Amino acid sequence: xxxxxxxxxxxxxxxxxxxxxxxTPRILAAQARIASQLGDWIIDQVPAYTTLxxxxxxxxxxxxxxxxxxxPILAGIDEGTSAPRDKGRLIELPVYYxxxxxxxxxxxAERAGLTIEDVIVRHSAxxxxxxxxxxxxxxxxxxxxxxxxxxxxxxxxxxxVPAGSVGIANQQTAVYPSVSPxxxxxxxxxxxxxxxxxxxxxxQAGDRVAFxxxxxxxxxxxxxxx
Length: 226
Prior knowledge:
- The protein is of the alpha+beta class.
- Helix content is about 25%, strand content about 30%.
- It has two domains: about 1-75, Gyrase A, domain 2 (2-Layer Sandwich); about 90-220, Cyclophilin.
- A hairpin with a 6-residue loop joins strand 6 and strand 7.
- The strands form four sheets. It has a seven-stranded mixed β-sheet with strand order 5-15-6-7-10-9-12. A four-stranded antiparallel β-sheet has the order 1-2-4-3, with helices on one face.
């Protein structure tokens, strides 16, 4: 692990250099301990795939003191700090998998040499870890998908991806919480609201997500829009 300055009031802690689910519990453990032990100095923390951004109050502390405070915390979080696969909140998200809403479902199946049903089964059989939040409010980057259905991002992003769209990009999967541009391969649609101004984000880094296949009628009954 390393600590490096990002700006006059923030530092970046690096836990690794490639996507690895085992890093997530270490990052979240560091975030919790920093908040507990250095909370008076800290304005915000942002966990990501392999890093933790720590924003501190310049009126109370400087870079050297922050690093001096963080180093002993990191020393207590070694590579053995991990969490079992079932650690963290488990959130189930229903998905209507069908070419009617899965704009790239057929293409993903064809690329993988699988049937559409195979893609659905393999995508919904995995419990995913939320590695990071970003791109749009409520957008959780999750992984990792079954290698057989991992599909590169589209070379030309769509200008408009419907809210609730479930996509795959390489080893990751995600649900678009709102209408936006996007280049992920869309394989279905989820009726669950992932973000609102009242509740904010349903997902948080460290959560686990299980997708459950539902019918068209169930999708509509649960508030989904076609």
